[in-house]
Design brief:
Dihydrodipicolinate Reductase, domain 2, about 325 residues, 2 domains, globular, alpha/beta, 9 helices, six-stranded parallel beta sheet, Rossmann fold
Length: about 325
């Protein structure tokens, strides 16, 4: 595919997820190129552009959005800026891949859907995990009946961050465990069950200083079974997913932060031996899920097809997050 036909990406901001993970991954894309980056500080934009080999740097988000040579925007800004800048980009005719969680609440997500429908652009929530081969294989195994009927799913996702200035610890930025990492547990449970939860019960503990949730657990009741998860912003860093069927279980070793240089493993255990001694291990070659995500979104633009994670799907996730807060 020639450079002239590739999707030309513009990046809003110099957030770590963009400069450390997403932009380097996009450099390996076959369907797109990073053409510009913007920051409210021109010096920061220029420094990032020089370091990452990006042709253009802008000192405001609006300047980048107004660039006629940009086809799509990647929006990794803090959560409270997802809606306003995604809307501005859509109004300018740009497609948008917006970081998770898609908005601050479900009302904002509905507003984003209305703008998308009116402008005709593509907008997707950046849940890169659905593009990773390990998750696609897990869903294939579940749907094929390899583990029998799926009845339960258990997820744990935590890290330890007590910096009061960090956006993950600020309510005005949509911080807290449920919004930052609980969203993964909810989305992947919905994706694997292939259903929507009919009931959600939770326990939510708030940091007395930050006023964000620091330890949250929830039970999602699906028509076919239950998913339970715990997420935290103030515990030892750890992540694991286990999916239980009537015949076997699947364990995902590194479910969410799979690195681009390390093989991933899943374990399929029929319970015939103690401590999973007879478990079958499946390995997946190292790959970058951010590269795969960007190419999948670019393909949706080029072929006018479905995006990896639609706003309708994102809306259901936001509604589930809200239910977890309400019922906690």
């Amino acid at each position: 595919m020639s450079d002239q036909k590739k999707i030309r990406w513009g990046i809003l901001g110099v957030a770590k997820i963009a400069t450390i993970k997403v932009i380097p991954a996009m450099k390996s894309c076959t369907r797109g190129v990073v053409a510009a980056i913007a920051s409210r500080d021109l010096g920061k934009a220029q420094a990032a552009a020089q370091e990452l080999g990006i042709p253009k740097a802008y000192g405001s988000y609006q300047e980048l959005i107004a660039d006629p040579d940009i086809d799509a925007i990647y929006n990794p800004l803090p959560n409270q800026l997802h809606l306003p800048w995604t809307v501005k980009a859509a109004e300018a005719g740009k497609h948008v891949l917006c970081e998770k969680p898609i908005t601050m609440n479900s009302a904002e997500c509905r507003e984003m859907i209305a703008v998308r429908d009116r402008t005709g652009v593509k907008i997707a929530e950046a849940f890169m995990v659905v593009c990773h081969p390990q998750w696609q294989r897990v869903r294939e195994l579940v749907r094929s009946g390899r583990i029998g009927s799926i009845r339960s799913m258990a997820t744990f996702f935590s890290y330890n961050n007590t910096d009061p200035e960090n956006i993950r610890n600020r309510p005005d930025c949509g911080g807290g465990a449920l919004m930052d990492v609980g969203c993964y547990a909810i989305m992947t449970a919905r994706w694997i069950f292939g259903e929507e939860p009919v009931q959600i019960k939770s326990l939510v503990e708030y940091d007395p200083i930050f006023k964000t949730d620091r330890l949250s657990s929830a039970i999602l009741e699906f028509p076919s079974g239950r998913s339970v998860f715990t997420c935290s912003t103030q515990l030892v860093p750890y992540q694991r997913v286990m999916i239980f069927g009537t015949k076997a279980r699947i364990e995902i070793e590194i479910p969410f932060n799979a690195t681009p240089t390390t093989k991933c493993k899943i374990f399929i255990d029929d319970g015939s031996a103690f401590a999973g001694a007879n478990a079958v291990t499946e390995e997946f070659p190292a790959c970058d899920q951010y590269t795969l995500q960007a190419d999948a979104f670019a393909q949706a633009i080029q072929e006018n097809g479905p995006v990896p994670v639609s706003l309708e799907y994102a809306l259901k996730n936001m509604e589930a997050i809200e239910a977890a807060f309400k019922n906690g």
